[in-house]
Amino acid sequence: MSVSPAAVAASEPVATPDPSASPVPNSAPTQADLLDFVRRTAADADLIASLPLDPEGRTWVRLEGPGGSEAWLIGWPPGTGTDWHDHAESVGAFVTAAGELKEHSLAVRLPADGWKTLELAEDVDRSRRLPAGKGRSFGRHHVHEVLNAAADQHAISVHAYYPPLPLIRRFSRSGPILRLEQVERLEDWQ
């Protein structure tokens, strides 16, 4: 996730959803487990209201996710978003807690390694609006960009990933051409 250093709200877990609300799985959390977690967390009005919002850049707070997952509460100022990226081998889920987000994604699994430029087929683009209360889960190598297209309203979302993000691949896109621009590893974020 890219933001200005001043926009970081916290670097260690600061909020823990009630563990009695659902059992912690004995094994790795599934996409369904992560989606259930982000939905329950997004419904916690006090937690959502506690996120400091910055008019210039995204803010975030790390949360305790289920079963050792990585989870985040993220604030999106109007007109902000991510670039095209994936979460490598992690599965994930996110839900909009306030405002509305838009997701553009590719309905194709990209090769994990060994390429720098790909030409995409015409029918791989997907877009969805995610108003408050709506979200989705996704599998490994899910390529997307997430945007707050609103002109005057912050959006807030809850995200969870398992395993915790080992790396993020960042892409640029020009029409059907997708280029691998950068691979960020955990040590790059610390």
Explain this structure to me?
By secondary structure, this protein is mainly β. The chain has a single domain (5-189), classed as Jelly Rolls. Helices cover 11% and strands 39% of the residues. It has 3 helices and 12 strands; from the N terminus they run ααββββββββββββα. The chain is globular and about 45 Å long. The chain starts with 30 loop residues before the first helix and ends with a helix.
Q: Would you tell me the overall average pLDDT? A: 87
Shape: globular
The name of the CATH topology is Jelly Rolls
Helix vs. strand class? mainly beta
Which CATH architecture is right? Sandwich
Report the C-alpha radius of gyration, rounded.
Answer: 16 Å
Can you write the helix and strand succession as a string? HHEEEEEEEEEEEEH
* Strand composition percent: 35-45%
| DSSP strand tally | 12
Helical content, roughly? 10-25%
Q: What would CATH call the class? A: Mainly Beta
Tally of individual domains:
1
Spans where pLDDT lies below 50 across 5 or more residues: 1-25
Number of distinct helices: 3
In angstroms, what separates the terminal alpha carbons?
12 Å
Task: Summarize the biggest pleated sheet.
Answer: 5 strands, antiparallel
**Order of strands in the sheet with most strands:** 1-2-10-4-8
Name the CATH superfamily classification. Jelly Rolls
Keywords summarizing the entry:
190 residues, mainly beta, Jelly Rolls, five-stranded antiparallel sheet, four-stranded antiparallel sheet, 12 strands, 11% helix, globular, disordered N terminus
